[in-house]
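Supplementary material to the annual report.
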Amino acid sequence: MISPAHLAFAAAFLLVVRSSAPGAAAARPIFDGKPSPSEATATARWLAAQNTWGVLSTISSDLSGAPFGNVVSYSDGVPGEGRGIPYFYLTTLDPSARDALEDERTSFTLSEFPLGTCGEIDPENPTCAKLTLNGKLKMVDLQSSEADLAKSALFTKHPEMKDWPKNHHFKIFKMEIENIFLIDWFGGPKPISPSQYLEFGRNQGSLMYS
Amino acid sequence: MISPAHLAFAAAFLLVVRSSAPGAAAARPIFDGKPSPSEATATARWLAAQNTWGVLSTISSDLSGAPFGNVVSYSDGVPGEGRGIPYFYLTTLDPSARDALEDERTSFTLSEFPLGTCGEIDPENPTCAKLTLNGKLKMVDLQSSEADLAKSALFTKHPEMKDWPKNHHFKIFKMEIENIFLIDWFGGPKPISPSQYLEFGRNQGSLMYS
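Predicted assembly:
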């Protein structure tokens, strides 16, 4: 007879085998629901992978250096292959891109609330997770392979983007993450370094969700 | 026979009478769905009245003056009586309140997307409305009548707030609005002055929605 412990071991073994199989190196975390509060990095990556829009805050040149938050769409990868880096499709007709070209210090904020998983919990309750990524907003060279990846990431999650007016000169931007602020439970923000965040799931089969 | 023009006049007359009836001075816009793109101020007030959370951006003292966006709950009034001013319930255990006490320049950003009325339209599409209020974040004196109004506004839309831990020393804050950025259609942001925004619906029976 096979015991539950054997089954659990077999399942873990399969996950490790799957993650080290040819081609699996490129795979990124596929989440099956919200990670537990004990898995802060997984929660941060889950929020980045599940949301499709957030608020990008810049230092406003129009408003003499005041902060300015703007609703933008983004993608951190094609569905199921998020890498944690938010890519944006912005035009300098909009103040956020203009601001970032003058001062690249930006903040990008996501909430669990619109995902529907907070239930009756208030959006400000610490158990309804919130993620703020701070860093530099950089334009991505349209001739680079990263631009191809970013376009694919953006256009799969935001299909109408590829038909947006050419004469608005949309450009691809990304955030180079320097600071991560995650609240997903009581007791204040969880410490997550940019490298922990970006490397999550890359070589950690047992942390992957299927 | 009563012509359609007569009926329209009678309806407008009734609205004016209703808005000038005793007690109606305190009434605020009650919206029945999203206002049309030709009614920018109504759309801004609708977004403020319908949402329950947004992103508050500050100049971060922890991050050497970079912008910092944080998910917060708010209320601009009890349901059906929004006044457009966002009230917040914040603790200085959280960086946003600490930042604002050092530099009161803040930005508060709302999206139509989580309301569900954008349908299949992308969150960044200009027809999916976005509102950014910029101004000074001020603490509201807890002994004032404004604090009573703000508490009532906050606690009706966020019932769990009144049970949040006393030892976290939550305080009521409000934004003194100085600049309004609304996108609800093609063609760039709509010009709305703070007084247009705040006075909307106050003495304009014909602009009220029921």
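The beta strands of chain B are 53-59, 67-73, 87-90, 105-111, 130-139, 171-183, 190-191.
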